[in-house]
Design goal:
Elements: H1 11-45, E1 52-57, E2 63-69, E3 74-78, H2 81-93
Antiparallel strand pairs: 1-2, 2-3
């Protein structure tokens, strides 16, 4: 059994497969460019003294949360959104 996917049935199909692949690349490029632009605008408009919280994904696909308070210089990271919320509450109690 051959596990390779190939578009070689006719010349027309091969061209269509190639165009489909190019559309995916083109779409991914614009999507990536939009995300970069969106993050850039958020950084410019952000209050430098405002608490920052964001979600990240590590190289293994695990989702975790990070928080940073620029006023105190303190930061916190956890796999639990609840833990981050508790850290924020504790930060502002003192």
């Amino acid at each position: 059994m051959n596990n390779h996917i190939r578009c070689l049935l006719t010349e027309d199909i091969e061209i269509n497969c190639s165009l489909s692949f190019q559309k995916k690349i083109h779409s991914n490029f614009w999507k990536s460019l939009y995300i970069i632009w969106e993050n850039f605008v958020k950084k410019i408009l952000a209050d430098p003294h405002e608490l920052q919280v964001w979600q990240k994904v590590d190289r293994h696909g695990n989702i975790y949360w990070q928080a940073y308070d620029p006023v105190t210089g303190k930061s916190f990271s956890s796999g639990s959104e609840t833990d981050v919320s508790m850290w924020i509450e504790q930060l502002y109690r003192h």
